[in-house]
Structures are given as C-alpha cells and as structure tokens.
C-alpha cells in the first residue's frame, strides 16, 4: 500500500528504540576508537554504523555512498522473502536478460514520446498484441480501430475505464436533454478496493450484486435487473481475488442483448487476462461479446513483469470520449494521452514487450498450464487433508486455491489462527472474511505464481499439516494467546506505526460497513 | 503515454514477403544458436510487432534485439527539454535493481521498504516547514500528476462537505490556476468535474499566475488555488505569499476561506536548498493557507522516473471519506492513492539520496545547476542574438515593488551589439550586481576582475530566485534583421546534433512569443554547457548565412524523427484531421488557440 504517513511530532520522536535501553546499560570504562570524521575502515567501522539512520529530518551532512548503500541494503533484509509470499499475484521473478534491459532503461521517462520514440512504439506494439489477444475487432474495416494504453497498474486502468464510461453516459444523457447527475455502476461485492475508490473519487453511485454463502461471483440475472437509465456500465471480474472464479461475462452480455439494452460492460481481467486466453481459449469473455467495451489487465501479475505496468483496451475510439484525452504538443507532434499519471519509468513496458516476444503464445501457455496443474495438485492435496475447496479447478478459474476448514463444533481454531501459525514457518498464506452477505465466511487463499514449483508446493502441504497438528493440541485459550503472540511478533502489520487514529474504523467502504476484508492483489 | 491504435499489419507483412529471399524456417538457424544474432529474426523474419508470436525465442536473442532497437531512442542526458532526472549513482542503481520486484502496495511483505516511504514523507514535511502542533500526513505517489489529483480531490471534498454543512448547493466547484499550469492540473479539473479557471499570464506577472486576476475570479464556489512553485515555462516562482494575502483579504470581506495547494513539482527540491530560497517570500507550510504541497522525486529529488510526494499540513485537511482502510492479517492500512500495486524501488532510492546527500549535498547540486544556468544565460545574451525570458541570471529586484516587472529585465539588454564578447557581459552583470547588492550573502563580497566572478564565489542569493531553467528567444533586433529565420529551425538543427531543445509558445495571452527552453539538470555540467553554446552559436550562424529559399526546405522537415506511416495510418490520420477541421468549423473556433481544448505545450 502506498499509504498515508503521519509525521511524528517532536515529542513522539524517540531515538529509534521503542524502549529506552541506555539507562539499563552499565557504565563500563571502554577504550573505543574515536576516528569520527572520515570513512577509512570498512562500512561497519565508520561512525555511521554506530548511529541511527536519519528518520524524520534530513541530515545536514553527506554520507559516503558505500555506507548509505550498505545501511539501506541491510535494513531491507528485514523485508519478507517474496518466494514465500503466497498472498500476492504480483510477479517476483524475471529472467536476467529482462532485468538487464529494464536496468538500462531506468532513466527513461515513459511519457517523453519525442525523446524516446522507440519506447513509445514498443508500447504501441504491446497494446496491439494484447488487444488482439482479447479479440479486439480488427477485421471489420468500417468500425474505427480499438485503442488502448499502458498504465501503472490495474487501478489506474480501471479508473480510466470508469471515467470513460461515465463521460460517455453523461454526454449521451445531456444530448437527450435528460439529467446526468446520478450515475451508477453495477459490480460484484467481491470487487477489488480500487473499484470502490473509482466510484467514490469520481462520484458514481455503487450498486452491488452481493455474493451468497455458496456463490462467490455475480448472478447475471440479478445484475441485469439492476440496470436502469442511470447505469453507466457493469463491471465483470475475470478472476475474483477471493476464489479466482471467472464471472460469467457471456451470460450478462446475452441477457443484455436479449433485453435490448446497450449497457457497456468493463471486464476487470487484472489477473485473468493473461491466463484465460492461454488455458481456456474458447471461453468467451472478451471483445467477442458485443457489450464488452473495455478490458483491463495487469502486466505485473500473470503478464509476468515486475510491478508497475497495466493495460486497458477499448473496443473502439467511440467508447473513449474525446474530451478526456489530452494532447501535449511537443516539438511539433501532438501526443494524445489518457492517463492519471504523467512521468513514469519506461522499464516495465519494455519488460512486457520482452516477455511477449520472448515467450510467445507457446511459452505463456506452457507456464500457465504448469500453474494450473500445480494448483489442481494443491487443491486435491488440501481436499485430502479435509479442507473444503472453494476455488474452481482445471482452468475454470485463476491458478489459485481458496479453501476453508470443515464445520466442526469441536474445532478450537479458525482460518486466521492457521494463517498465523503458517507465518511462523515463513509462509505468507492470508486469511480473509468473504464478501458481505456470506455470513462471515472465512477462508484462506494460496496464489500459485510462476515461481511456485511442485517441489515447493509439497513443502507447503507438509507445513500446513504440521501447523494443523500443533493447533489441534491446543485449547481455545491457548490458540488465542498464541495467535496474539504471533500477530505481535511475527506479523509486520501488527507492529505497524503508521496506523492512524483519525482514519481508523472508517464506515464508508464495504469493509467498514460489512467487515469484508480486501484481498491483496 | 500515448494512446495507440491497432495497426493493421497485413499490408506490411505482405510487403515484407515480397522482398524475402528465402522461405522462413528453411535454414537451420533455429537450432544453431551460437550467438544471440544467430536466429531467424536476424535476417529473414521481422520481429513480432502486432501479434504475440506463436513460439518463443531465447532470452539473449530478445535482449539483443530490443537493446539494439532501443538505441534509436534519444540520449537521456542530451534531452534539455525535460526536468526528469536521468542520472543516479551506481550504488543507488544497485539498490534499484535489487528491489526491482518489490511492490510498494504490499505492506505486509515489505515492511522495511514501507518504513523508508514513511521516513521520506517525514523528512519532506520538515523540509517544508511543517508547524508545531500540526499532524502532517502524506503519501508517496507515482509522480506529481497523481499527487496533484489527490491534493485537488481533497480540496474539492472539503469544499463539498463545508457547503453541505452550510446547507448550500455543491454542484459548481471551480479551481484557479495560471495558464502556465502543467497538463496534470487541468486534467484534475476535467476528470473530477471541477470548472478550471485558467487565468491568462502576462509579462508583468512573469508569465505566471497573476495575483490581480486571482482576485477577480474568486467566489464562493472556489475550492482552492493551485500555485506553482517553479513555472515550467520560465522557471519563475509564483508569488505564493502575495496570493495568500489576496485570499486573506477575500476572507475578511466575504468570510470565505480558500485554501492553496502548492504544486512544487520541480521547486520543492530546489527552493529549500538554494541560498536564494524564494527571495525572502514564504511559500511553504509557514503560510497557514497552504494546506498541501506536492513534489516530484524524479525531478530535482534526483531519482529516476516514477516517484512523487504529497504532504498535507494536518490530517484534518484530508477528508475521512476519501480514505480506504484495508485489513490484512489483522493489520490495518490506510490508503489514499489512485494507483495500487506499483514499484517501490524509486522510494528506496529517494531515501538513499536524502541520507546520502544530506542538506549540504542537495544544496551543492542545485547551486551547481543554477550556476550553470546563469552561465548559459549570460553566454546567450552575450551573443546579442538571444535574450532570456527567464530571470535567474539577473540580480533580484528591490523589495519595493512586490511584483517584478518582467519586461524591463530583458528589453533593456536588447541594445547590446551583435558581437559583444562574453567578458563584456560579465562586467555588465558585475556592475548590476554591485548596484543591487543589498541582500546578498557574505560569500559574494570580494570581486575584482570578471574572472573571479566565475570562481564559485557567488551564490544564487545574488540573483533572482527560480528554477535552473533558461528560456530564451531571438532579440527584437535579430528578428528585424533576419525576419526569415524561424526560432523553430534552431530547435530542429540542434536536434540534428543530438540536442533536444524544444521551441514553443508561451501560455496565453503571451502566446505570440515563442521560447526555446533548456532545463539544467544535475548531470549537465560546465563542459556540456560549453559544447551547447558552441553548437547554438554555429547553428544560429548557419541560419543567418542562408537565405529564405534554403531555409524553407528545412521547415518541411519538422517533427523530428518519425517512422513512415502505413497507408492505413495515413488514411486514419487524414480522416481525423478532416473530422477535427469540420468540428472546428462548426464551432467557429479559430485555430491555434487550443489550450482550452487540452493542447499543452510544455513537457516537464
């Protein structure tokens, strides 16, 4: 999370330590070296190693670069091990050649089209490839071509999609002489938080299709029933973050067509966009469906690029109102841009192009097939351990496994306790409370990424088994204590200092209202 | 980022097939992988451009292909058009690469990285004079655009809440900014349904937001004023304190409290460090109306692209309604951003820079930039052909007049003869300096000869404060003497020598004046200035020596390097142009005045 930070006041600043230790130290006469000024020994012999790093105010004096590097690197070793993080979809592995390319492109500013024309061209190629992957209409000579752009991630892509839908609806309403002040957007209650953000920040009313204890995706009929004249669009998720299930875009589309409605559909394919076309190419969810007007996908999830790239494609320029597009005149060339961010790094786009042509359809299919196999294997093993599997198997959803414990009145622990216990072994397996109106259903989720091989999968299964064993021997009280201890000492967010009293327990979001926890993506 | 269109590849591929010597795949290249170039892409097959290829290619081949193709991009360091930093130290780069895969939104997984982000916000808030007793709050962003959107959105929401609490309507918000505003500021207004009151600039207002006009445009629906610290056109700081006073007066007359957001995208890392500061005026949280400030880490924060910052002076200025709380394994997160998953390496490098350079280190960097910018300005004016629209090489105006009269600065110097030497100019600067020496620091006291003038004795405090930007144009004499020489051609010919120096019109109502703009960055040292001046002089001389007929050829070449358009693209382009023209005619608009339609001229 790029989160809000409180700036500590004078009296809140302590010297790095939460508990003052210095008073407790005995005053021993020490003969310590005192060459304080220059750095001649190794990094750890310098005066900087004996002092705290500046935290709140900029230091007056410089620090040698080797020291700054080492100090920061050492501190970063406290970050988790990405390989053991089974909570996130975000890519943690890329080939060395790709890393080299990305490093070489670090200083390139992506927005600077005139200076880096080749980088801009590479973006266009990626858009074209991804558009075609989603079956953007290219055969029809009459229709204007599909358009698309890169973004920092799916959040930006979704905001752009919502803005376009809103503006298009507004223009239409105003042309018809009708009021245009109460737009609404229909979405599943399992949406990622950025959908809530988009509607909040752009002042669109959110209409939820709630999940039920046995249905974790939207119900097409219920969705279409919600459509009214103020509906700017419908959001369908290709791979919900909870269970990875694909929502039935085709059914929604067909119902709309049947009722003669032209409500646009935006498909949030953040994770699924790079999985479904390779694993289940026959599934119709993309521009093959008439009402799907825009699709977003994260390059940094199953697009296999490091964080910082997403894509959004519109069926045709008609769905992207002109007044949202800004032109920047630069050295005689008008540059059209539709983005919330401006200057940003170019590396990720280059990384995306590298992956697309390096792997080809064949390579992506090979990787996605392996992931699907691993996920199926993991699901079967967990079912054998007595868990209830909530996610779909065999490519009917994302390669992830969502599961929960069997109902058992004698059980002393819940999913959250198991998640905490696994944390001690180093695995990050998150537990969530499901979307609202599912009666507080709790679940665990394991995301199978490119670097999660069968071997590591076996390691995880045996650790889950042993953690369960430990928990089963405890009574309720001990489980609670144990969980608190782990939360305090093993889990980072338990120690977080940036939690803010003013914004605590907000009541305006789905989470605030219903206790749904947002799954990480 | 440019919106792109699907290009129909049929035609191109068809064309390629005609010239192909051999059927693809007939050779044994696919198997024989001796060097990266030993693949069928080397000579027989085009690299996939529009469709994802069916089969993959070894990593080293793809690396070599892409690296070679990227050679066609410009050289970042010779790009004088951009504020965006292009150099980071080796150690910073090492940190960057090691952390390339880290996601800044994953708080639970990367706590150390997140704590760096917290520290950076804290350091910035202190740097900008956060006041005692206030709980400042801030966040990292992808760049200043996101930061400006967040700052604007918070102002809009505060205004809405206030209006609703008063039982008044909240449908017609407006925001005030100068016509020199960067595109992000106008985008905010467009995307978040706020009326943008874009005020024209004038020479008197230094081509910046004009306080007199601000006064006329205030009303009860004004959600705030965007004040830019460091106009991207000329590098002038907008008079935050003066606008602050106008808003104070407005409040005492009407009781309406209007906040300020300072867009210090470039200036936030310049003004605090320079000896000049902002010329004795306040601009930061010392002014109570300044509720939020944003800065780009990737400009004078000396990080590579992808990081910006925004700080609010107190949490009460950030409406609760905008914040989302996320629970994760029992931990809690507060989020107010437009982006979610995004790289965190830039934040690490920002922290590296802050503690590695320290205050003195940053000061040394920006003072060097400013000194180089002054050198370039003086050299340009010494030619007699050019005059600077930027003011950083001129002594500061006396405190008497609060708004400095921009025109007097350069018009007076147009009298210089064409062939005056640079020494001449130095003496001139010297004499001017001694006249208005009142506010300078002790460092710049002893100067005997013009030579010592360059010997690091002076600091930015002896000059008008501003960004290290040099905006210049032909002198009026030059234009009279060589009316056929177009400034645009200078930009074009410099490009042939790899320099990128954009030429564009100033914002309305000064858009009849065109400027060439050079941004001096950390990596643009004395030696390169020397080369730049030499090249500029020789380019200008070439232009002076050629007559109209010869030069008219050059005009056709505009637009720099572009790939030839395919037939399909040409058709689309033509259609679009026609459509545009038709539209323009329907609305009866004159061409050229396109700012209101979202045509922005400056890049930052």
Q: How would you describe this structure to a colleague?
A:
The complex is a heterodimer of chains A (521) and B (604). With 521 residues, chain A is an alpha/beta fold. Chain A contains 14 helices and 14 strands. Chain A folds into 2 domains: 99-354, 3-Layer(aba) Sandwich (Aspartate Aminotransferase, domain 2); 365-514, Aspartate Aminotransferase, domain 1. Chain A has helices at residues 65-76, 96-104, 117-133, 154-175, 193-201, 220-225, 249-258, 276-279, 347-384, 415-424, 454-472, 476-489, 492-495, 510-514; strands spanning 5-6, 147-151, 184-188, 205-209, 231-237, 265-268, 292-298, 310-314, 326-330, 333-337, 388-389, 400-404, 431-433, 442-447. Chain B is an alpha/beta fold. Among the domains of chain B are: 33-72, no CATH class; 95-355, Aspartate Aminotransferase, domain 2 (3-Layer(aba) Sandwich). Helices cover 38% and strands 12% of the residues of chain B. Chain B is built from 17 helices and 15 strands. Chain B has helices at 10-19, 59-70, 90-98, 111-127, 144-165, 183-191, 211-217, 240-254, 345-383, 406-411, 422-435, 450-453, 476-481, 487-496, 526-545, 548-555, 567-587; strands at 4-5, 137-141, 174-178, 195-199, 222-228, 260-263, 290-296, 308-312, 324-328, 331-335, 386-388, 469-474, 503-505, 514-519, 599-600. In chain B, a hairpin with a 2-residue loop joins strand 9 and strand 10 (331-335). In chain B, helix 9 packs across helix 15 (526-545). The longest helix of chain B has 39 residues, at 345-383. The radius of gyration of chain B is 27 Å and the shape is globular. Mean pLDDT of chain B is 80; it is low at 21-30, 399-454, 558-565 and 583-599. Chains A and B meet through strand 1, helix 1, helix 2, helix 3 and strand 2 of A and strand 1, helix 2, helix 3, helix 4 and strand 2 of B. Strand 2 (147-151) of chain A pairs antiparallel with strand 1 of chain B. Chain A: GO terms for molecular function: glutamate decarboxylase activity; pyridoxal phosphate binding. Chain A: InterPro entries: Glutamate_decarboxylase, PyrdxlP-dep_de-COase, PyrdxlP-dep_Trfase, PyrdxlP-dep_Trfase_major. Chain A: This is Glutamate decarboxylase.
